[in-house]
Amino acid sequence: MPSHSTVLSYFNRFIDLFLIEPSHSTVLSYFNSLPKTSSFVERDDGQIYSPMFSAVRLHGILDTGNIQDMQLMNILPRDTLIDLLSQHYHSVSILPRETLIDLLSQHYHSVSILHRETLIDLLSQHYHSVSILPREALIDLLSQHYHSVRILHRETLIDLLSQHYHSVSILPREALIDFLSQHYHSVRILHRETLIDLLSQHYHSVSILPREALIDLLSQHYHSVSILPREALIDFLSQHYHSVSILHRETLIDLLSHHYHSVSILPRETLIDLLSQHYHSVSILPRETIIDLLSQHYHSVSILPREALIDLMSQHYHSVSILPREALIDLLSQHYHSVSILPREALINLLSQHYHSVSILHRETLIDLLSQHYHSVSILPREALIDLLSQHYHSLQGGGDMSLMKNFNNCAIRQGFVIDSDPLYHSEILSLHGFHFELKGVGSRDGIYSFYMQRLKPGDPVLSFRQCERQTFSMRADREVRYCITAQYVKKGENQLQTTGIKSQKFALGEKTSKSEVLQVVGVEKPLYIQFSVLFPTS
């Protein structure tokens, strides 16, 4: 092995030669002329090099900028070049990009010998070279220099995150949010859990996502609504209320139960639609809110079950004033027993302004009202009271004419009975405006039943003393009556219905003219329900 002075003399000689003739051939011929000692290594191609050559090459050959001389790098082993770059990182700029990329592709752990800035600069110009770095190396780079994200093509970063979604954690929240704000369609490359976690900590970043992306997220992961602050969700719904449909009803109801003032962010139509399907959710809204809703959209009363509305009125009877009179009258006409949930004052006030609504109340209800509040008789205008009494008088004089009852199916007086055992004969009395009818049902052992109605004379023994004492008798020889007899029973699990249909007949007191048409039923099974419907048309 030559001494240190000998080696130095070799290199001094080399420098002198290179300065005289700086060419590739000169350097190679010089190396070929060197003795093959242990200080030098013979390459496979028969050429000789020395590790000491790296310093000379750095300060001499490469500083010339001669592209041909740069190719001398190929005579150096990888380890020597890596060692060179680790000490003189700024010399990377003198290497062709392809050479450096080739080096990194085979020795990716040598990334650490490059300054971050150098590598970032390399990737910014040769972004496709990212593929030569292991994912771990690139992730490590980004974790320390997250601002270098911008030197990567969006496609490259998206591809990285799509395969290594857990690497999202190596990026600062700000960097990821900035990335998503520009490429919101890339949201799908993130796992739902990752995105949800991001939003849970940076809910204000919701604004960086397109509404469509957030709606799609919530539609599939509605339970993730809980990771958003109520304020953020309410703000979202206020601008995109049609997106309410992507939330589960339970979620929206829960939101409203905690933040009922947020009802105002929903269109009335949306809230009404919600209540129409989930009327029990009325209880989660403050009374004031629902009263305010009804006051502006009184026609929406129909979306609430009667029970819910009645319950509302029973506790907040002063809210009656927020309902249109028509809506309240319609409610009372179908649920007259609900009158009891209104204070007397409220009902009297209603009648004083809408006296024609008296007809919606049952007579018993009105009588009970007037009996306790007789001074409230004055709430009925004299015209209305006179009209009421005159119609009642003419009805009695006309033999019980029901001039206001035009629809038989809705207005007819009904009475009936049930046959579920022996005896095979049943009879009841129907008294109406001075006319008395016996409703009969006669059966036989072979299962044949006959049903009909018959007008009774004033002295008929069928009438009891109590009935004769408390009821008047009409002296009219005949009375036109519209009636219908119906028999209903179940046979072999199916509902059976037989009827005479609506008939019109003049009932007199003679033997043949006092009896109605007979409804005969054969092969019935008990129990058997019989109904008689009667209406007196105008004479």
From TrEMBL:
Q: Which residues form the BTB/POZ domain?
A: 413-518
**Where do the coiled-coil regions begin and end?**
none
Q: Which Pfam families match?
A: BTBD16_C
Top-rank taxon, per record? Eukaryota
Q: Which PANTHER family match?
A: BTB/POZ DOMAIN-CONTAINING PROTEIN 16, BTB_POZ DOMAIN-CONTAINING PROTEIN 16
The protein in question is named BTB/POZ domain-containing protein
